[in-house]
Amino acid sequence: MKDDIHVIFGFDMETDVGSFTPYYDGVKNATGPLVELFDKKGIKGTFYYTGDAARRNPESVELVRDSGNEVGCHSLFHETVGDELFPIPGVVPLLPEEVPFRIEKATEWVQQVLGYQPISFRAPRLWGSTALLNSLEKLNYVSDASYPMYFYRERFVPYHPHHEDWTKEGRMNIVEIPNFADMVMQSNDPGLERDRDQWPLFRTKSADELMIRIEGFVKFLRERNLPVVLCFYFHPWEFIPIQESYHYGEATVTPDRFLTLGCGEKAMSEFSILIDRLKGVGSKFHRADDFAALWSQAGKAGSR
């Protein structure tokens, strides 16, 4: 497993523009083209639905399921189910004691549409927590892709978390999959180091620009004799035309430009190129649940 490059593509199926709007145009209009692209390229991935997204867009869930891709869970309404990393006005984290109920309800809503329980999870904004992981473990989830490598900067490969601190290694059954970040660059963001998070680079610049970051990280891992696992997060709204601002209710929301830049045709084109570039270096593509099983199996074999 150490000699291969393993890739997990995950899509956070939520309302448009990072849940700063109430619309589901991305879920409605981008699921089909993304599934078609995956079929064309011969790869699979994981689509993480909020419970509300699943309920309101059952045809999207069914399309993902029937295409052989994985349907995962992404909270109930894109609420903060973990530890807040930076403040967002109007976004208040759940209390730890509230988390189990919310995760159970989110799982139930996705399951009602999917037909069986989802077993892979990602927290909104990558804000996970120990309470979240314990809730997922209780519900027999096999993977969680919430760890923000750019922020904690301690875990560079998947691991089984500790029940008292999800950022540490332990003996839980669930596999925590860190999200790709550029751990080689010099950060210009003291504290958060959020500029290491290379999520939008494929559309704000290009797939080839992102590949430069990926190649640096692959080298970083191999110099430390670590397996190469690249977990990415995307959103369906990135693959449709996005307005620079939205008015609804009693206010106008104008997202930071990096959220809307390059969405639509450019994002789809560059994403296709990214898949080809990763294929060109021999990458193996996985659903999150399949990868978790592979990782756990390899760990058991190594401990014998």
UniProtKB/TrEMBL annotation:
Molecular function per GO: hydrolase activity, acting on carbon-nitrogen (but not peptide) bonds
Secretion signal, residue range per the UniProt entry: none
PANTHER family per the UniProt record, alphabetical: POLYSACCHARIDE DEACETYLASE FAMILY PROTEIN (AFU_ORTHOLOGUE AFUA_6G05030) (PTHR47561)
Pfam family, one: Polysacc_deac_1
GO BP of this protein: carbohydrate metabolic process
Domain NodB homology: 15-229
Gene3D superfamilies linked: Glycoside hydrolase/deacetylase (3.20.20.370)
The protein's name: Polysaccharide deacetylase family protein
Organism: Cohnella herbarum
